[in-house]
């Protein structure tokens, strides 16, 4: 019985010796892979994606707001800050909303200044 145990141990030792470099490479890859891809910019965090999407939405809504304000007949290029802000606040309310988004009001007011 001891010779079969010894043979099994030798067989397992030989299999482990063959698989050990692959196991080490797997562990190193699992640890280093996310770090390297994060440093090189291939990973996007959820918060970054949400911020980019939010910025795009605000920009689009501000463009609608500015065009609606200009179409109302107000001369937007000569308005002072407070008047521009009030005009933006009036036209920044989007369909389905009851109050204007402050980010849209700011962006719309900035667009009206040019």
Secondary structure topology:
Elements: H1 2-40, H2 46-71, H3 81-91, H4 102-112
Helix pairs in contact: 2-3, 2-4, 3-4
Tell me roughly what share of residues is in helical segments.
over 70%
Average pLDDT works out at: 88
Q: Strand tally, please?
A: 0
Sheet having the most strands: none
Report the end-to-end length measured between terminal Cα atoms: 92 Å
The portion of residues forming beta strands comes to: under 5%
Helix and strand run: HHHH
Q: What count of structural domains? A: 2
Unreliable runs: none
Rg computed from alpha carbons, rounded to a whole number of angstroms: 31 Å
The secondary structure category is mainly alpha
Count of helical regions: 4
Shape: rod-shaped
Polypeptide structure, described:
By secondary structure, the protein is an all-alpha fold. It has two domains: 1-43; 46-112, no CATH class. It has helices at residues 2-40, 46-71, 81-91, 102-112. Helix 2 crosses helix 4 (102-112) and helix 3 packs across helix 4. The longest helix has 39 residues, at 2-40. The termini are far apart.
